[in-house]
Amino acid sequence: MLRVDNITVVFGGVTAVKDVAFGVKNGELLGLIGPNGAGKTTLMRVITGTVTPVSGSVSLINTSLDRKSSHERIRAGIGLSQQIVHPFRSMTVGENVAYAAGYAKTRNPLRSILSYSRKKEMDKAREILKLLDIEEVAEATPTNLPLGYLKRLEVARALALQPKILLLDEPLAGLNQMEARKLADKLLELNRLGQTILLIEHNLSEVIRICGRIIVIDNGIKIGEGEPQKVMRDPDIRSAYLGEGYNNAAS
Amino acid sequence: MEYEISLLTIMGISIIGALSLNIIVGFCGQISLGHAAFLGMGAYTSAILTKMGVPFAAAVLAGMVVAAIFGILVGFASLRVRHDFLAITTMGVAFLFLGIVRKQEFLGGEMGIAMIPDPGLGKVGYMILVLLLALAVALFSIYLKRSWMGFTFDVVADDEDTATLIGIDVSSYKLIAFAIGTAFAGLAGALYAHHVKFIDPESFNFVESITVLSMVVIGGAGSVWGVIIAAAALSLFPMWFQFIDQYKLLVYGGLLCAIMLFSPDGLSGIFTRSLANIRGRESNASG
Predict the structure, then answer these.
(1) What residues does each domain of chain B span?
(2) Most exposed: B121, B149, B205, B218, by fewest CB within 10 Å?
């Protein structure tokens, strides 16, 4: 489905990501984890085209995304939920999702000016909000909503684009344990419904619980890949992710 | 009676001018401080062409096209700069327009262009034409706001970066907002030229840009009805009450400050909030 080949990113002489390669299979829920500053979000930005790598390439279903701009990559089939929530605050939660659901009508300006009805998209938005258990705030504006709702709204809006792959950048960040667990369960449910997901996350226990496979990066380098339990048993990964002291204490 | 006809004609032209800027500023969220330049482009194009014998309708259309072409060029600036930087860039465009027009002999230089041909509709006929065109621009604005293009303008005005990350080609939509807005500005300028029959660079100076912007801000950026009411009021008052005309800048400046301080969403915001309060009180009373 998605292939990231030998990506290297350099910011002002500092290598943020070095020669990272991985693939996401169709229907998979892949976790991308790593400590703070490991390069997870940079990788996500390379995939969406907001950061240009010095080398490497990204492809989606055997089509190269390298020469495509960010909006073209999204149109190619990527749905993105950002780490810091960015709802459109001038519209309701329902309209936020309905707008994304009308992506076919906004593909080109001529079609957008000739399209008027929003009914089909509003119905679709209600369906998606129901799926994510936030349909009760469909008419509310995002300004006064708690973070838990806004995180789900980010996922709902990305989902409304009917993406081939959903990129989730720390969707559980800032949520309490119970909310994080509920949202993680929801992501697992989406995956079981057939949605391919690349989950970039800091919440290790939830990633291990819901992901079928994980990739671990540290200091911009891939240091592990495989089944979560197996990967996390690797002493090198434990010390990189949890600190040297963890292994010493464990031993 | 002739004076009232002239007032209504100017009011119609002001409404078209204000609605044209509302598409750029109110709908798409792109600040523009040089809108009078596009009114000027429409006015000069139409005036010169009709003096060369081109029919009125074709000349007005050409004025719209010329303004839209330059509008798209300025729109490219909005792809590179945002917010206050865009405001300064568009202000620069207004001064650039004045600087160029003043030095071009074929545009009349400082003296301007006089004896602009009459469209031959009579004063009442011309007033009706202007008011019908104002109505058409208002209806188009209402349609545009409710269409998916208007929905996209809302999204671009709200958060351009996030718009890109849900697949929106933000650049194209911004350029289209500039093209439509400046084309209507060209229309307003052309109608103005054929109404007053004389134009010079001062007719489209920076103060005129601020006047049009005041109509949009006071009415409520993005609100078609608010902008129409503000444009009608602000174009009529200085002509009805001559003393206001002398203190026009003072009055507009004061109104702008008051609106920014007490109701940044303009008259339409005041109206919407009042309506919500009345409805709230009614539902409390019935509950």
Answers:
(1) 2-210
(2) B121
Nearest residue on chain B to A117, judged by CA atoms?
A: B147
Q: A171 lies in a domain?
A: yes
In-domain check, residue A134: no
Q: Which two tokens stand for residue B75?
A: 């729109």
What's the CATH code of the domain at A188? 3.40.50.300
DSSP A49: T
User: Does residue B170 belong to the interface with chain A, where contact is any CB pair within 8 Å?
Assistant: yes
Comparing C-alpha atoms, which of A173, A241, A158, A244 is closest to residue A206?
A173
Q: Report the alpha-carbon distance of residue B185 to residue A80 in Å, rounded.
A: 39
d(CA B281, CA A146): 28
- The partner residues of A214 in beta bridges, in order of sequence, read A31, A226
In a domain, A200, yes or no: yes
Tell me the C-alpha to C-alpha distance, in Å, between residue B282 and each of B11, B207, B274.
37, 44, 12
CA–CA distance, B89 with A116 (Å, rounded to integer): 34
Strands A14-24 and A2-11: antiparallel
Nearest Cβ partner of B167 from A50, A74, A89?
A74
Flag whether A76 is in a domain.
yes
Q: Which domain holds residue A244?
A: 2-88+164-250
Q: How far apart are CA B36 and CA B41, in angstroms?
A: 9
**In chain B, whose CA is at the least distance from the CA of A95?**
B151
ipTM of the complex: 0.88
User: Which of B48, B32, B8, B67 is CA-nearest to residue B208?
Assistant: B32
Domain count, chain A: 1
Whole-Å CA distances, A167 to A9, A172, B282 = 19, 13, 47
Q: What is the pLDDT along chain B (287 residues), one digit of tens a residue?
A: 888 899 999 999 999 999 999 999 999 999 899 999 999 999 999 999 999 999 999 999 999 999 999 999 998 887 887 878 888 888 888 899 999 999 988 898 889 999 999 999 999 999 999 999 999 999 999 999 999 999 999 999 999 999 999 999 999 999 999 999 999 999 999 999 999 999 999 999 988 999 999 999 999 999 999 999 999 998 887 776 667 667 777 888 888 889 888 888 898 988 888 888 888 887 777 65
CB contact under 8 Å between A90 and B151, yes or no, is no
Pure H helices in chain B:
2-21, 35-51, 56-80, 83-103, 122-146, 148-158, 160-164, 170-196, 206-219, 224-240, 242-246, 248-262, 266-286
Q: Would you call B166 and A112 a contact, using CB atoms and an 8 Å cutoff?
A: no
Contact A24, A2 (CB under 8 A): yes
A71:B167 CB<8 A: yes
DSSP state of B113: B
